[in-house]
Design brief:
β3 and β4 form a beta hairpin. The chain is globular. The chain has a 9-stranded mixed beta sheet, sandwiched between helices. It has a single domain, classed as PAS domain (Beta-Lactamase, 2-Layer Sandwich), CATH 3.30.450. Helices cover 24% and strands 33% of the residues. It is built from 5 helices and 9 strands; from the N terminus they run ααββααββββαβββ. The protein is α+β, with helices and mostly antiparallel strands. The termini are close together. α4 runs antiparallel to α5.
């Protein structure tokens, strides 16, 4: 996790959940995550649209130059990455993993900026299937961010974190591989499956993606 807001939200989530796999929605106190709040969002399951934004922080809405509340989360992503995002969401809601995703956002005039996104399970009425807590933060803030809206975004890297159980590492590899197989890759990157190092950690290269196997957070 490179951004302070991402780390702060993850640490808060990890603290308030205690021994549970995920905290309850009512456990979240916005005053405790002030430094992350502007980049924080909550997704809710809409039977017709999938997951949509129930709440979205001001910095996040500014990056897209529009209010995100009520908008589909899946529709933000390039059509080739939608299945991959849906698989990651299932890993979070069903298996209680934490998903860390980096992506490149592109505007209508082809300017680009990288973002870091985290997705964490959240209970609502005892179930983790209908809510997600997350944050989305620009890795840098070019002068045009907030003036030129992000129109398209593509996954550039992912990591699955299993905060408690190392036994889930095999599951992490399976989910990561499934995600990679669902993305149609482009560009000139390292050959499929070539080992690499990302942020000092062992990783595998799959075209433009770097997949870091999950482990303890």
């Amino acid at each position: 996790m490179q951004k302070t807001s991402t780390r702060a939200l993850y640490e808060y989530w990890n603290t308030i959940r205690g021994s549970r796999s995920a905290p309850e929605r009512k456990d979240i106190d916005p005053t405790k995550i002030r430094e992350s709040l502007a980049n924080t969002f909550i997704l809710e399951l809409d039977e017709s649209e999938g997951f949509s934004f129930r709440l979205a922080g001001s910095h996040l809405c500014t990056s897209y130059c529009r209010e995100l509340k009520g908008r589909s989360f899946s529709r933000l992503w390039h059509e080739r990455d939608v299945d991959a995002i849906d698989t990651l969401i299932r890993a979070v809601t069903e298996d209680h993993a934490v998903a860390l995703v980096t992506f490149q956002g592109t505007t209508a005039i082809h300017t680009k900026v990288s973002f870091e996104t985290i997705l964490m399970p959240l209970r609502h009425n005892g179930s983790t299937h209908t809510r997600l807590l997350g944050a989305m933060t620009a890795m840098e803030e070019p002068y045009w961010l907030g003036v030129q809206p992000i129109m398209e975004q593509r996954i550039t890297g992912l990591r699955l974190i299993w905060p408690d159980d190392v036994e889930y590492q095999d599951s992490a590899r399976e989910v990561a591989t499934k995600v990679v197989n669902e993305v149609e890759f482009s560009g000139s990157a390292a050959p499929f499956g070539m080992p690499a190092t990302v942020y000092g950690r062992s990783a595998r290269r799959y075209a433009h993606l770097a997949v870091i196997d999950g482990g303890r957070g």
